[in-house]
Design a protein that fits this description.
By secondary structure, the chain is of the alpha+beta class. The protein is built from five helices and 17 strands. The strands form four sheets. Strands 6-5-10-2-3-9-7-8 form an eight-stranded antiparallel beta sheet. Helix 1 crosses helix 5.
């Protein structure tokens, strides 16, 4: 069996496909050769999986949030964190799993129509695109708090606080939430943690001003990929300050900064560092 081919990178919401694996139960776990559905990653589960509908001759079923899966050489399906091998393991097929409400024993080869809930996808795409912008703006606002040069740089060539400090990320409809830890290793790398945490209000203001400037200037957002397989690398590209920046990313996104309208962040101190809440406003 081949890896699932995924077309959500192209912005597709609908595809005709063929059933490759169907595991009965409640829910039914459906795998097709091609899908427009974005699955939640088992490795970095920041963006929830797409929802929608599957239709076939004589029936249809609602699709709950999609997840990643892997089918062993013996034909056994493993889902999400149960996947026991690394991506691309020899003989294994990495697939998108569509959990169907109800029991639907669809034979292999059955032709189905897959349709993503476009409104739910758009809301998450807004949140994910805003998340990337907020991370870049945060990195810029925190440049004065580095006392040493760091080799880790973001897509704008700035010290990549986001990558070095992030502990968790969750894309939401119209926003996202990130958790950052300022621990011993980050302090050794050169971050001045105490003044940073003491000045979160001022940092929040600088991040929001930077976001407003970028959004006012406008710019294209586009996606690219190394191949159609669900395990092939995918990228987010955005025009900022007259140049294209690129970030590896497996999620879904809007097509331009204009789609985002207004974006605001809130920074909140906690025991280990701080959290960042990004919101796309009407």
């Amino acid at each position: 069996m081949q890896h699932t081919r995924a077309s959500f990178v192209l912005g597709h919401h609908q595809e005709q496909a063929s059933v490759r694996h169907c595991q009965g139960g409640e829910p039914t776990l459906l795998v097709t050769d091609l899908t427009p559905f974005h699955p939640q990653s088992h490795l970095w589960p920041d963006q929830p999986g797409d929802v929608g509908t599957v239709r076939w001759n004589g029936g249809e079923a609602a699709v709950d949030p999609c997840r990643m899966g892997a089918i062993s050489p013996a034909g056994e399906l493993f889902v999400d964190r149960e996947i026991p091998v690394k991506r691309g393991a020899e003989g294994w097929a990495f697939v998108v799993v569509h959990p169907l409400a109800g029991t639907h024993p669809l034979p292999v080869g059955t032709q189905v129509e897959l349709e993503v809930d476009a409104a739910a996808r758009h809301a998450l795409s807004l949140g994910h695109s805003a998340c990337h912008l907020a991370a870049l703006a945060l990195n810029r606002a925190l440049i004065p708090y580095w006392r040493k040069a760091v080799s880790e740089r973001d897509a704008l060539g700035q010290p990549d606080f986001d990558r070095l400090a992030i502990q968790g990320s969750r894309v939401e409809p119209h926003g996202s939430r990130e958790q950052y830890r300022i621990g011993k290793s980050l302090r050794k790398k050169g971050i001045n943690g105490e003044p940073l945490l003491a000045e979160l209000t001022q940092i929040e203001e600088r991040v929001n001003r930077q976001l407003a400037d970028w959004l006012a200037a406008g710019g294209e957002i586009r996606r690219s990929w190394d191949g159609e397989a669900i395990i092939d690398s995918r990228y987010w590209h955005c025009t900022l300050e007259g140049k294209e920046v690129t970030i590896p990313c497996g999620g879904t996104h809007v097509a331009s900064l204009a789609d985002l309208g207004r974006v605001r962040v809130t920074l909140t101190h906690d025991d280990e560092g701080f959290s960042l809440h990004t919101r796309v406003l009407p």
